[in-house]
Amino acid sequence: MNQDELLALIDQIYEAAADAGRWPVVLQTIADAFGAGEASLSAVSPRAVPWLVAPRTDPPYLQSYGEHYHPLNLFWQRMTRVPIGTAVTDRMVLPKATLHSSPFFNEWSRPQGYLSVMGATLLVEDEWRVEFVVPGQNEFGPEQIKLYDAIAPHLKRAVQLNRRLQAAEIDRTYSHAALDSLGQGVLIVDRDARVLFANRMADSAINDGLRIADGVLCGGSPSETASLHFAIAAGTRDSLNDGRDTIAISRGPYRMPLSLLIIPLRTEIDWIANHQQAAAVFITDPDSAEGPNSRQLQQHFGLTPAEATLVVEMLKGSSIQAVADRLGIKIATARTHIHRVLAKTGSRSQADLMRLLLTSRHWVRRNGSGE
């Protein structure tokens, strides 16, 4: 293999790093480069084979390897004693006569024309080993070992990237599931109000006050949209900003407006890490909200009746002044209650308090009564 062919092969390996579905094509190119009938990647332990890509091996043989023959593979057993990253041939780790007399060789390898084999361990995590194996008809020698040494670092990095991307996708799936399980509408938006994610509860608010135009979250009127976009941009610029982060979105003359609480995000959610400035938008519908009642707040946080009543009113999305007016108390009294509530709940700000209350699982009702 000349230098250009080697570089092209390395490029293909990194394509598979970004898309694991490319491995069957890449492994066939690698097999041809080694002059072998097959090249495989697998994740194995002494007892199991959860992942195995061998594109030229007949599927029934592939299945039988995972179900029965893997523990009988003498070459694999000897290869586990070799340092990680070091390629060996069958002749380097056991006598040919021993290999050829084994049930694995006679029942699994020989029928497929796999008379010789070389391989290496690319990665070890806990008891799992990621193996690169090349079986073929002819003996493997120094030329094939040299080729392996040239591509080994890239194979190892590609496998590591595969596993990290897989873990990130799992994290993303669980993050989505967690947000979907909330009894609260939640949108994730970037600094330009483009919607990155909407949970199931948020869907009902779309076209019911809120709307999405060309992927951008908007209110029911130009003025509401401007206020919403300003609050999102202001919040994402400064994660410590506790200014105006509650926006009311009207829904007509006979319905109470939606209340949108905007909370900046930085690295709290890994799967939006490529969006350096983002925010969570919690949507409260006063017509159907089932947040904590006054008694639950008193019991759970030790609030006084007056403090709990104030919090319940705040959850409806109103400003502090509007809440004070509704309760018939002075704004200074309302602020005193808020400071005490923050201390009792361990919240650093009003936004932090709203996040705690709107996402808490304590308020799930069972059989029509609070916990």
User: In terms of structural class, how would the helical and strand content be classed?
Assistant: alpha+beta
The Rg value, from CA coordinates, equals 31 Å
Amino-to-carboxy terminus distance = 70 Å
Count of DSSP H/I helices: 15
- In total, the number of strands is 12
Strand content: 15-25%
Order of helices and strands: HHEEHHEHHHEEHEEHEEHEEEHHHHH
Task: For the largest sheet, list the strands in their spatial order.
Answer: 2-1-5-4-3
Q: Please give the share of residues in helix.
A: 40-55%
Instruction: Give the mean pLDDT.
Output: 82
Please, could you describe this protein's structure?
- With 371 residues, this protein is an alpha+beta fold.
- The chain has 15 helices and twelve strands.
- Strands 2-1-5-4-3 form a five-stranded antiparallel sheet. A five-stranded antiparallel sheet has the order 7-6-12-11-10, with helices on both faces.
- Strand 10 and strand 11 (258-265) form a beta hairpin.
- The N and C termini lie far apart (70 Å).
- Residues 239-244, 267-275 and 364-371 have low confidence and may be disordered.
Question: Which features characterize this protein?
Answer:
single chain, 371 residues, 5-stranded antiparallel beta sheet, 12 strands, 46% helix, elongated, disordered C terminus
Structure in a nutshell:
The protein has about 375 residues and is α+β, with helices and mostly antiparallel strands. The protein has helices at about 5-20, 25-35, 60-70, 75-80, 90-95, 95-100, 105-110, 140-180, 200-205, 220-235, 295-300, 305-315, 320-325, 330-345, 350-360; strands at about 40-45, 50-55, 90, 115-125, 130-135, 185-190, 195-200, 210-215, 215-220, 245-250, 260-265, 280-285.
